[in-house]
């Protein structure tokens, strides 16, 4: 296959492969650094909510699609020299957007949804530079295909260089850039890097210009018939092969962050594997790797379904995580391998990439705007697991129309058993064993994608229903902020008698519990128990708290409301309206109904909401904001601390809940206490007796003056101690945070 424009006769002084691959590498590096960097810039304005990140991701994917469309349009409608002129003008114009920064007076609306404000702000701040960066991959590969180099007829291997840059940026940002460079310098260095990229793109353009002998004509000179465009069926196949992995990536990220372990930076794992798959399928080893992935996928699927879905309790979370990531990697390798194997002639390269970017955008839109409103849990993840199996090669091989019969019979049989059996609870073990046996049957269908996908889908339907039955879920709903569920469980009371307990979960993290017996229904439990640090705080200051004004960030089930006294003014700040709805509904929890029905509920990001409060107006602020198991970092910075103490009276108290399985948050607060000349006490509470639902919890109480905390320090109710001295920890600010630095 000869390229139609191989007219260059002079041997270049250096290989153009190095120039073009290096430029693509730099472009991807800048793109994947800009996304987390600008997300951090926006954090203090809008808070670390999933809605913010999801909206940003949709913006990036949409602009990426726009960049690919531009590359397709300019390379199919104009000659090479005109392409260079148009793109040079765009590069020069984009330099006026530097350095990247928020527009002046960028303040989000407080009385309406900020989604459109956020999209407009992103467009003004980084829209043009990001658009230019997004055009680089398809445009430069198309230019390279016309250089006349010996590999110009198949430039797709350059895509590996682009994804290598993305992968390096992804791994270096949290581990190298974020710990050592503040946001102000990050913006400056990124802007300098963008200028260097523009120069590299112009050098690539000059290489193309020199290789051409034609004038500025719409079509290139060629003695060979033009390559026929790929049929619509093939283009739709590309669309599906790119859409499913994109949706699967987002679904897995949300699933493992809420249902496996709420570990910071866990989202890096799926995205790393996703980018690695592109590097491998467009490499020179792809022809050997792809068949191996196709063979390995159903073998791993059997173990994956049996343990990670049907019976996940038997696995430690790290092994469950490995299984999910391995199954995901094999699925995207098969899909992307098919995508790479069916790539078109370089003549239609930009159309190919345009469809890929459009599919990625559709996957993001589905997971961000459709799934949260259609599903009450992260069901898009198992749906895309099945879709990936249906995209395996050989869908129409054999008698494909007979393949759905067995899965459909199983589905009918399963629903028949469900409808005809009064109590399935007594048969949970038998049902679980039967599902594991069915998982074993999936391997026998490995040669039939339709049968394999449908059988797996039926097993997942039964598995999800089984877990819902076993968890005694009474209510479940999903918002932008996650999946909330109300469940009943049974525990033994003080007399070892069975007692029903109502629990509130965010993902897999318990955010509140209430005993349902009349004598205990208003007793604060879990992290807010009376024997615990927050109970000790209210007990020690009981004599003077009659007229206190108290603000509590984070509502949960409302247990803190039962510390309310007549004469006190309580205000709860909660970002998720669904949490307020659940806590105020006596059908689920009765803390608010019985203890503090008149408490004010302020919905929105706590930091933004507190700015609207009068200065020096609170006697006590309780910080208890968690997203699953993580405290939003923008509530832990020095600027946040300054805001809290501006709202507290001179003798006011700040109580911080810092219980966390993965992060030593006490280090951050200890550094603030030292640098801001405050006084703080820490209690890492561990219950000494087996009181029901009194759990281990860590709290920090901070005041402006040490004498204000003296009575708490001398309290015999608990073991309060000074915060540890921190060495080498850089102060957390809106400009700088470093998660790795406080990892336990």
Automatic annotation (TrEMBL):
The chain crosses the membrane at residues 17-39, 51-72, 84-104, 116-135, 156-176, 188-209, 236-256, 262-282, 294-315, 321-340, 352-375, 381-398, 405-421, 427-445, 452-470. Keywords: Membrane, Polyamine biosynthesis, Transmembrane, Transmembrane helix. The keyword Transmembrane applies. Gene3D superfamilies: MFS general substrate transporter like domains, Vaccinia Virus protein VP39. It comes from the Bacteria. The keyword Transmembrane applies. InterPro entries: MFS_trans_sf, SAM-dependent_MTases_sf. This is Fused MFS/spermidine synthase.
């Amino acid at each position: 296959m000869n390229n139609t424009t191989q007219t260059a006769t002079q041997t270049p002084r250096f290989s153009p492969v190095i120039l073009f691959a290096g430029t693509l590498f730099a472009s991807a590096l800048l793109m994947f650094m800009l996304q987390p960097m600008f997300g951090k810039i926006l954090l203090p304005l809008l808070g670390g909510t999933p809605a913010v990140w999801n909206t940003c991701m949709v913006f990036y994917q949409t602009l990426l699609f726009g960049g690919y469309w531009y590359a397709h349009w300019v390379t199919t409608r104009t000659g090479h020299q005109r392409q260079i002129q148009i793109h040079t003008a765009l590069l020069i114009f984009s330099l006026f957007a530097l350095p990247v920064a928020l527009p002046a007076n960028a303040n989000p609306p407080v009385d309406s949804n900020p989604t459109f404000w956020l999209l407009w702000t992103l467009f003004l701040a980084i829209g043009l530079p990001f658009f230019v960066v997004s055009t680089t991959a398809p445009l430069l590969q198309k230019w390279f295909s016309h250089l006349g180099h010996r590999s110009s007829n198949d430039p797709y291997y350059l895509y590996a260089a682009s994804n290598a840059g993305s992968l390096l940026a992804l791994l270096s940002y949290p581990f190298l850039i974020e710990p050592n460079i503040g946001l102000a310098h990050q913006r400056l260095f990124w802007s300098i890097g963008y200028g260097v990229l523009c120069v590299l793109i112009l050098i690539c353009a000059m290489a193309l210009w020199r290789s051409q002998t034609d004038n500025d004509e719409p079509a290139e000179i060629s003695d060979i018939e033009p390559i026929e465009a790929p049929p619509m069926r093939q283009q739709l196949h590309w669309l599906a092969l790119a859409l499913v992995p994109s949706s699967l990536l987002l679904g897995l990220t949300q699933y493992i962050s809420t249902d496996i372990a709420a570990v910071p930076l866990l989202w890096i794992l799926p995205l790393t594997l996703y980018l690695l798959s592109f590097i491998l399928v467009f490499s020179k080893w792809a022809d050997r790797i792809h068949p191996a992935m196709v063979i390995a996928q159903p073998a791993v699927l059997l173990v994956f379904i049996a343990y990670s879905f049907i019976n996940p309790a038997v696995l430690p979370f790290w092994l469950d995580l490995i299984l999910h990531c391995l199954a995901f990697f094999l699925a995207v390798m098969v899909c992307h391998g098919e995508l790479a194997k069916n790539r078109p002639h370089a003549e239609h390269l930009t159309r190919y990439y345009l469809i890929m970017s459009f599919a990625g955008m559709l996957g993001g839109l589905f997971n961000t705007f459709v799934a949260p409103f259609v599903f009450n849990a992260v069901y898009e993840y198992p749906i895309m697991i099945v879709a990936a199996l249906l995209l395996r090669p050989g869908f129409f091989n054999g008698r494909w129309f007979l393949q759905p019969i067995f899965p459909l019979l199983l589905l009918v049989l399963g629903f028949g058993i469900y409808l005809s059996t009064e109590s399935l609870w007594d048969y949970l073990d038998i049902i679980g064993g039967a599902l594991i046996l069915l998982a074993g049957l999936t391997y026998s269908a490995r040669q039939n994608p339709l049968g394999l996908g449908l059988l797996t889908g039926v097993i997942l339907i039964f598995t999800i229903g089984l877990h819902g039955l076993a968890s005694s879920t009474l209510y479940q709903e999903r918002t932008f902020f996650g999946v909330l569920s109300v469940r009943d469980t049974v525990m033994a009371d003080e007399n070892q008698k069975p007692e029903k307990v109502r629990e509130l979960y965010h993902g897999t993290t318990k955010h509140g519990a209430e005993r349902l017996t009349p004598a205990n229904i208003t007793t604060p439990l879990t992290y807010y128990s009376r024997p615990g640090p927050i109970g000790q705080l209210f007990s020690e200051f009981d004599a003077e708290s009659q007229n206190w004004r108290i603000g509590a960030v984070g509502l949960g089930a409302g247990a803190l409301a039962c510390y309310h006294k007549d004469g006190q003014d309580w205000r709860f700040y909660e970002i998720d309206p669904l949490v307020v709805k659940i806590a105020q509904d006596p059908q689920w929890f009765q803390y608010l109904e019985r203890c503090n029905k008149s408490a004010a509920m302020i919905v929105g990001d706590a930091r933004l909401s507190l700015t609207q409060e009068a200065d020096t107006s609170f006697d006590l602020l309780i910080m208890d904001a968690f997203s699953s198991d993580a405290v939003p970092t923008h509530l832990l910075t020095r600027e946040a601390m300054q805001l809290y103490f501006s709202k507290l009276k001179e003798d006011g108290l700040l109580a911080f809940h810092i219980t966390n399985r993965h992060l030593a948050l006490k280090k951050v607060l200890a550094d603030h206490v030292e640098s801001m000349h405050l006084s703080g006490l820490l209690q890492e509470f561990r219950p000494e007796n087996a009181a029901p639902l009194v759990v281990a919890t860590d709290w920090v109480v901070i005041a402006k003056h040490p004498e204000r905390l003296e009575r708490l320090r001398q309290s015999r109710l608990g073991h309060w101690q000074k915060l540890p001295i921190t060495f080498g920890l850089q102060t957390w600010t809106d400009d700088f945070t470093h998660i790795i630095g406080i990892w336990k």
